[in-house]
Here is the input.
Amino acid sequence: MQITNNILMIRPVSFRMNEQTAVNNYFMEDIDMKNRAINIKAQEEFDVFVSTLKGKGVNVIVVNDTYEPDTPDSIFPNNWISFHANGTVGVYPMYAENRRNERREDILEILEEKGFMIIEVIDYTSAEEEGIFLEGTGSILLDRVNKKAYCALSERADEELFIEFCEDFDCFPVIFTANQSVDGKRLPIYHTNVMMALAEDFAIICSDTIDDKKERKNVLDHLKKDGRVIITITEQQMHHFAGNMLQVLGADDKRYMVMSSAAYTSLTKEQITMIEKHCSILHSSLSTIETCGGGSARCMMAEVFLPKGRV
Here is the structure.
């Protein structure tokens, strides 16, 4: 399946603007608020978001972050870990040194205690020693049904390591570069999942970020070939995190496209109608998390596709 009912989320205890990721995450903005106040606000947004998901029957597994070591971006677990239907777990090399501290073995133990089966862990983190990075499902957009993986190359997404991932997970690689305008320059977008989202039968994509026409055509051709309706968003909408969405399963197998309220507000009536032809929309205010963290709803949710064994 392309989507799941099981979502892992990490409740923050020291959330703030991470100076180590700000160097190439152009979605982040500094705000005039003390770190303690920022974290309290982020916790409030997190709790409402989790409640919204649970209210629709999504199985949200909440794990509290720890005060030590310092992990200001722990709220975005999808960058360091991925869970797959064959029982495999991927663990990924992170660009920012303080984000490497987010990796926790006890999270695997928590999932096993809840009845999920882990058969193998593929650990790519040794690539950090060579300055090579691939930040999980932030860098990699998985089409789990058609066995394809989309990746926008950047400082945080290395091409050779991505190809190695595709070989390990039996995926066809779709590689491109996506750029955004920053102070009059076209600079790489830090993560694929802020400019593109894959649902079961449609895709949200800011295709204007793919400056190379051949690459753009290749990406769109893959989406069309696999029968997806393409919903394009503008670069301005992308900056409101309209590309950072995730489709999930709620109660009674009902589908929801999950996004932030900022993303939802940025959409046109036509775009909303197109999405709602396929599934309902679920949105929650994540303004503090978006502004200080440079990530949104999708970044906060690590999908758990692991098979269930005995509890």
Observations:
- The chain has one domain: 6-303.
- The first helix runs from residue 35 to 55.
- The radius of gyration is 18 Å.
